Amino acid sequence: MGIENIPEMQVRESEFDGSRKVNPQTLQGFEGKFLVVKGTNDKNYILAQRDSSHQMIFTTFMQTAFGEYHCSVNEKFSPLGGGCITIDSKKVLLDEKSTDYGKYDEQIVRPIAERWRQQNLPNHELVFE
Predict the structure, then answer these.
(1) Global pTM value
(2) Domains identified in the chain and CATH numbers
(3) Which of 72, 86, 70, 77 lies closest to 30 in space, CA to CA?
């Protein structure tokens, strides 16, 4: 395990329940925040959580990277910006901005979110506002 095993995008319930991953079949009605994180390997990651601040999402990402994926202590991660995510019966909506880290860069987020949508919610539309 290591940095190469961290999923490009994850949607999790919250930091209060062990940050378990959300089952794609239960994503409808998901509302939360997301954060873009850059790794030492110049790869970008997105972590979305329900009921979290962007700072808490970054903390969860770090705990997951070093705990669950056993990344080296030499790995460096930095938050790049964030926003809100809402998933309804037809679309995945990404909007707003993080008061902690600023607005996400759509050019970074769009291809990652699109690959995640195609894999998990192929009948949904990806929308940025």
Answers:
(1) 0.91
(2) 3-128 (3.50.20.20)
(3) 86
